[in-house]
Amino acid sequence: MTLATIGIDVGKSWYHLVGLDQRGAVEIRQRFNRSQLIRFMTKLPPCLIGMEASCGSHHLARALVEIGHDARLMSAKFVRPYLKGNKNDYLDAEAIAEAVGRANMRFVPIKTADQLDLQAVHRVRSGLVSRRTGVINQIRSFLQDRGVLVGVGPARLARALPTILDEHEPHLSGELRRLIELLWAQWRQIDTQIDELEDLLEAQLERDPACARLKEIPGVGLITSTAVVAAIGDGKMFRSGRDFAAWLGLVPRQHSTGGRATLLGISKRGNSHIRTLLIHGARCRLRFEKEGASQLSVWAKRLLARAHANVAAVALANKMARIIWAVLTKGERYRARLAV
Q1: Does the domain spanning 5-108 belong to CATH 3.30.450.40?
Q2: Interhelix angle 57-66/113-145, nearest 10 degrees
């Protein structure tokens, strides 16, 4: 059997495979579980295999590469235009097989096990931070419903809670006081879990020189540096720093027609987690970095003087993304250009 391309639709338990010949005609259409799929692929000569980047696809792609195949991952939005007719598993696999053979297709690099582990830590931490915010908001709303007002910010609420609970606030019933004590215990437990995850990230920072180099960039800390390495590795999947910034959605969205180009707000495409971290880091640089420390700082301060703070923060985040790409791909440490 001679197959030009193979498309695999990755599911929870079953994998639907469609193989195309040189003419693009369907040569094989079959369903496997994981062990059956690996045994089947072992018997085939090396060929081009496409899959959508999803849960489980990185592990399967590494397994197929180990047995000699050329496995490639694609974003689902780039596969969708090749889907014909109604959506089902075999048609999805056929669309993947057609898309993977396109010369101008954009592929997703296969992540290593270490990258997936690091990404998992970030996802769990992000979920815990979101859960902690929900607990804090719930405590604050319960207190506000009883006329107990606390200053803005989690730190003020944490300082006020012992006093509110110990002095037996008259507006709080016994049942509500027990509920707030339960939520406060959850809050402290979540804080402990977040600290443990950040210790794991610190250990990764010490082991990985790329993370350590990124952390030297002003505005890029522990969370941002490890998140970038987990997402893009050495960064060589991008041709330039601008491509990386565009992948993060930090470049203007374009709407052009009739030879007239119109630039709108940022596209907000790609990895929203890293984009958010970079914008927060840019805000910190604009607020705390000493003026005149570097050429980039001078440029950012001048931009801030004539533009809105949000515009300046996004523009600086774009510059930081390009610096991150250069530091990763060149393997060099960050060197700030001092202002003249």
Answers
A1: no
A2: 170
Which ranges in 6-107 belong to alpha helices (H)?
A: 34-43, 57-66, 76-79, 89-100
Task: Kindly calculate the radius of gyration of the chain based on its CA atoms and give it in whole angstroms.
Answer: 25
**Averaged over 46-59, what is the pLDDT?**
91
CA distances from 183 to 128, 130, 174, 247 (A): 14, 14, 14, 39
- Residue spans of the domains in the chain: they are 5-108, 113-207, 211-330
Give the Cβ contact number of residue 58 at 10 Å. 22
CB 220, CB 327: distance < 8 Å: no
State the chain's maximal CA–CA distance in angstroms.
Answer: 81
pTM to 2 decimal places: 0.83
Q: Which amino acid is at 82?
A: Y
Q: Which two tokens stand for residue 220?
A: 């890029």
Q: Which residues of 300-325 are buried (b: 16+ CB within 10 A; e: fewer)?
A: bbebbeeeeeeebbbbbbbbbbbbbb
Q: Which whole-number Å values give the CA distances from 281 to 11, 298, 314, in the listed order?
A: 38, 17, 10
Distance from C-alpha of 222 to C-alpha of 212, rounded to nearest angstrom: 9
> Per-residue pLDDT tens for 104-128?
898 988 998 889 999 999 999 999 9
